[in-house]
Amino acid sequence: MLIAALLKVRWNHLSTYLIAGGDGPYYPLQVRSIMENLHLAFPDMPLLFLLDAAIAKALSIFQIASPDNCVLFAIVFTNIVLPPLAAIPVFLLVKEMKPEEKKILFPQYLIVAFAVLNFTTLILFPNSQLNKNAVAMIGVFFFLYYLIRILKHGLRKDFVWAAITLVACALTHFGSFSILLLVTFLVAAIHFLSNQNRFHFKQLKIILLFLTAVLIMLALIATLDFERFLRLIKIPLKVFEAPLLLFLLHDENPYMNPLAILTMVPANILAIIGLIVLLKNRRQLHSVNKTIGFTMVILTFFFSSPLLGIEWASRLFMMSYVPLAILYIITFNIVKSKLMRVIPLVLFTLMIFIYLFMGITFPTGQVITDEAFTEFKTLDDAVDFNSETLIAGRQDIRLLNSWFYRTKSSADYLLSQKDFYTYKAIYVVKQIKGSNLPSGRFRETTIPAGAIKKIGGEYFEVYQLANSDGWNFANGNFIVARGLITSVENNSIVIHNTKTNYTRTVCLTKNTQIHFMQNENQLANGIYVEVSGSRKPFSLAVDGDVIQVTKIPD
User: Is there a contact between 408 and 389 (Cβ–Cβ < 8 Å)?
Assistant: First the structure.
């Protein structure tokens, strides 16, 4: 735990926190809003923000620093101190699942270390946009601990603690809660199907209680953040959109390509070895260990599958260590083959040392350069940014603007005509250089012809939208493809992105909306377009909901 905490100190500095990660200012904005307005700035799960706000308020009362710095210090403090505590429930799991006559040996301690010194916790969770994920891991492992105790002992206090940890996860991080629902469903299904007394009243009572608790939690999530609730409902349809495997086969570079492979390959190898060990020893396994073991094998294969869509792969890959850790808590207790013991031990040891090295040497996720940041902090010298202005642009830039200048912000594809009547001024802040983001993530906002250029700096340009002319307002979807049309057919167009040099096939339907912002009146080769829509499952093609014809960027 101490090593994990010390490594997190490296990743968390007040001076760079706001410009680390694509959502750097998101947490500070949420916490400051609670302190000043008693509500979140954006819909989200509130528990961690409330804790950070309480710490920041205490620091502010004692005048430790300025109110804004107290907010930053509170967030950094919880991100350093809390996530390593996940080692505690993992250790309790080791004690609970080991045979009574056996002592805790090196392999079990290795798994405890792996739970807090893996790729996710050292490289991904220290990033400023994943604090909730990191803290929620404490609840995830505690919930698994109490779930196993329920299966083994059926004590009422374990039900109570399982419910408490489930609620804590739901109020901390939506994704972790979703994973716990999946885990519980699989455990219940495997346990129910393998149990001869399937229709025992006590089991049915447990199932009904669980379903009631889940419905209550879903209602709570829908109340706090309805968009996240809808995403939860749609997950089965979305999880295989634009599979990672297809990106790799087409030699494209998704957001996590090299790092994902470092997680995906060892996880699949270890899952295969774990499955072999479970199958060989299935007759001697305790029913609970069998249920949990096979559940964790399924989850590891799922979380580290190359067939996952690129959006979900980046999220689920980083969670594969959870079922992997539980699987090997069981496996190391029952494995008899030296080879089947040595290979996982070597892999886990190598992974821990590799990830420690990466945690020490990797860049800390600063998305803009120091020089660009310096210029950004002077933008209000020429423009009157305030709480009555709205900023559109790339997410990290507009959030940074909201933190420094207390402006409102909106994604450009959500900007509506109503906003012109609500705010005194609407600006687009566009970064032109000084970014550390890869080219695929350096998203540029198209500036309409009627926009007034207010600032033309070395790193940033600021435009004021005087009116709605030349802007496709509120199409409601993120742009998933942009570039020059190279082929036009009856039901599709092919788009070539000259910046990334990749092509996309966009499927057209009778409901596809086409907005011609230039003089063209039909789609043709050589026209520059931006496409909003959704990726097709098991394909790199895109369903084009909205196609906007615009000028070729400079």
Answer: yes
Burial class (CB in 10 A: 0-12, 13-18, 19+), 534: middle
- The sheet with strand 452-456 has its strands ordered as 408-410, 389-393, 425-431, 460-464, 452-456
Burial class (CB in 10 A: 0-12, 13-18, 19+), 38: exposed
First CA to last CA across the chain, in angstroms? 50
CA-based angle 530:385:473, to the nearest 5?
Answer: 25
Element (H, E) at 3: helix 2-11
Contact (Cβ atoms closer than 8 angstroms) between residue 415 and residue 471: yes
Element (H, E) at 332: helix 321-334
Q: Residue 519 has what pLDDT?
A: 72
Both tokens assigned to 402: 């909201």
pLDDT of residue 231: 67
Spans in the chain with pLDDT lower than 50: none
Provide CB contacts within 8 A for 114, sequence distance 6+. Answer: 321, 324, 325, 348, 351, 352
- pTM score of the predicted model: 0.84
| Cα-based angle 274, 280, 282 (whole degrees, multiple of 5) | 90
| Collapsed DSSP state (helix, strand, coil) of residue 495 | strand
Ramachandran area for residue 95 (φ above 0: left; ψ -120 to 50: alpha; else beta): alpha
Task: Tell me what pLDDT residue 554 has.
Answer: 60
Nearest-angstrom CA–CA distance, 14 and 12: 7
pLDDT value at residue 294? 93
